[in-house]
Description:
This protein is an alpha/beta fold and 383 residues long. Helix content is 31%, strand content 25%. The chain contains nine helices and 18 strands. It has helices at 16-32, 55-64, 74-79, 95-104, 119-132, 146-156, 197-213, 331-345, 353-372, and strands at 3-11, 36-37, 43-51, 70-71, 85-88, 108-111, 136-138, 163-171, 216-224, 229-231, 237-239, 245-252, 256-263, 274-280, 283-287, 292-296, 320-321, 376-377. The strands form three sheets. Strands 17-16-15-14-8-13-12-9-18 form a nine-stranded mixed beta sheet. Strands 1, 2, 3, 4, 5, 6 and 7 form a seven-stranded mixed beta sheet that branches. Strands 10-11 form a two-stranded antiparallel sheet. α5 links the parallel β6 and β7. α7 (197-213) crosses α9 (353-372).
Amino acid sequence: MARRSIGIVMNGVTGRMGYRQHLLRSILAIREQGGVRTAEGTVLWPEPVLVGRSETKLRELAERHGLTAWTTDLAEALARPDTDVYFDAQVTTARVEAIRAAVAAGKHVYTEKPISEDLDEALALARLAEEAGIKHGVVQDKLFLPGLLKLKRLVDGGFFGRILSVRGEFGYWVFEGDWQEAQRPSWNYRAEDGGGIILDMFCHWRYVLDGVIAPVRSVQALGATHIGERVDEHGKPYEATADDAAYGIFELEGGIVAQVNSSWATRVFRDELVEFQVDGTEGSAVAGLRRCRVQHRSMTPKPVWNPDLPATEDFRSQWQEIPDNTEFDNGFKTQWEMFLRHVADDGPFPWDFYAGARGVQLAELGLRAWREGRRLDVPELTR
């Protein structure tokens, strides 16, 4: 069987997401399974070239996993003739310049989101990539979560009848960094460094709502900075200038109302870190990262409100579990495989830079809706 190597410049792999999900659980996992097979039977073999700012961290990472190609010089990596793809997992503020350099070098580009901090720049990158004739894609990992795949199956199968509403809850307590180390990098809480939960999570909610339920048509949002001071990775206090919570209302096509709360200042009292409840005329579902439970119209109980007596019903037991019916792989890895096939033999890949721009558009409109205190329409983006 023929094997084709694909060199991948991986920028930002010393960070939490770049290392865990993209290098370790995607690219190295693909190598462990023997590569990616194309439709024609060729095996694609990813050859990562690690890029970052710390020589010490890169060397340690490469030695840990038996890799030899790494550098702190992005231009050097992009100039290598044996690299085909550029991947970006840097902080948002550094992303645009690096992607522009990769496009200029003729590399196909796959990037974390948000693709940029504002819509005009995101659209400019999309046009630049198209003019250069390169393949381009944006990570949309939550579409590949088992729970949301099951939910999408229900939507496509007509389980809900007419969908009425969606309620989403996402978040957890991110420690301030003083008496316990924070689980997220400090730049997430500085607006000047590209931080903020609206910019981060509204990009996710755009592709989740568009791709699983229905297209987003309007947005109302209220943001907040609940924790005003945090402590960074070096033990130094800093002012949190970015929003750490967002409360959004989205109107979807068909009059569906979606309410999604996102917070890094909430303590979890639910089964998973993110959950969506979809209610329809024929049934309802609650989907998380992995699980999905349903309650059909025919099985819906008839609760009666009585505040004078304790509740005797076990409401959770009245829902049915949707079976897996298949083996679910890591969502990041699944999308990586699709993008590599897209590069090698033009396999389908709908999540391009324009999809990334739609996420930035919703984040930008959400921030504006918060500032102006009003509902804003979400217009169609034209290529």
